[in-house]
Amino acid sequence: NWDSLPHPPGNTMDGSGSNHTTDSEDTLFDIQVLIPVTIVCILLFLLGVTGNVITVLVFKRYKDMRSTVNMYLSSMAVSDILIFLGMPSDLYRIWKYKPYFFGDFTCKFLVYLSETCTYCTILHITAVSVERYLAICFPLKAKIMITKRRVKVVIVLLWIFAVTTAGPILFLYGVEHPPGSQPEESMECKYREQSAQSGLLQIMTWVSTIYFFIPVFILSLLYGLICKTLWSNKHGIRGPTGGSRGKHHKQTVKMLAVVVTSFVLCWLPFHIGRILFAWAGLGANLYEVTQYFNLTSMVLFYLSASINPMLYNIMSQKYRAATGKILKTRNSLQSRSITQSEPSSLDRTMLTSFN
């Protein structure tokens, strides 16, 4: 979230409407706000990292869980884990935005990593939705087109595209200090003044926002077509095999639709905040609104990175069983050799995707 905590102007307006100087406090928010936000973020960090690591282990350990859909979800879990690397820096900045002691490289890298993972997640969600559209609306073509090898290639290309398109961020951010000030006291990880004055920062803000809204439009269109096809085929599927296939498609689409919805709800305020940030120069009152709006967006940003494993547990009995199996194994390290020597009934009952 590379612009969720932009550099504050010299003066802002507090809740009573009186002017105060933020530079003397070196913090953007009241302690009554910072403490609960920090606690929530730490909880999201623990849940998100643990849940996404378990997701990767589930897909890696059980071969029958390695469907093409789950390959995308596993790659998304890796992206979500990487997102949490930026949380310590974000928490530091909301508590004390200056001086920034972690160096220019760390500032650039964390901002770049966050943006890359943001792009990567939405590209994965779009790709897996396109796959489900093909599998449901064009099942015969999908059997030929969609293979695990091709999905692996697509995933690699998605990561390369995300890494490349996020590249300009490296030139927009860095550690700077106001002219005439002491660097050891006023260093900040923020957008470079030159990028703001040249308009490059605003351009990248709008490009990144479009990067979000265009895929959301595509996702809405795809799931509309999928629902239409499933509704049309509701009475057209005959026999136990067809009925099972239809039920499988509906459950998979239902789970993915919930994931997409949670993604949009969590990240929509984040991108609205970017638009407001682009207009923050209109006045101090608007600036203060954008700060609290962006603080909320930051929490939702990390919620988005931690919520998917929770959704999988709620909607998938098979995922719950696999998660319980892994947790039980880790809590019983002394009997690990005995457990591994016994045939796993779970491996025989796993389906190729969440049902």
Give a written overview of the molecule:
This protein is mainly alpha-helical and 355 residues long. The protein has helices at residues 31-61, 68-83, 87-95, 103-137, 139-145, 148-165, 169-172, 183-186, 193-198, 200-232, 239-278, 284-315, 317-330, 336-341, 345-349, and strands at 11-13, 19-21, 173-176, 188-191. The strands form 2 sheets. The protein has a two-stranded antiparallel ribbon. The chain has a two-stranded antiparallel ribbon with strand order 3-4. The longest helix has 40 residues, at 239-278. It is globular, with a radius of gyration of 23 Å.
Q: How many independent structural domains?
A: 1
Helix percentage range: over 70%
**Biggest β-sheet, characterized?**
2 strands, antiparallel
Using only CA atoms, what is the Rg? 23 Å
Based on CA inertia axes, which overall geometry fits? globular
Between the first and last Cα atoms, what is the distance in angstroms? 34 Å
Spans of at least 5 consecutive residues with low confidence: 1-24, 238-242, 336-355
Number of helical regions: 15
> How much beta, percentage-wise?
under 5%
Helical/strand content category: mainly alpha
Please state the average pLDDT score: 76
Return the CATH topology: Rhopdopsin 7-helix transmembrane proteins
The total of beta strands comes to: 4
H-E order: EEHHHHHHHEHEHHHHHHH
CATH C-level class is: Mainly Alpha
Pfam family, one: 7tm_1
Function: Receptor for ghrelin, coupled to G-alpha-11 proteins. Stimulates growth hormone secretion. Also binds other growth hormone releasing peptides (GHRP) (e.g. Met-enkephalin and GHRP-6) as well as non-peptide, low molecular weight secretagogues (e.g.
Membrane topology: Multi-pass membrane protein
Region (Disordered): 1-21
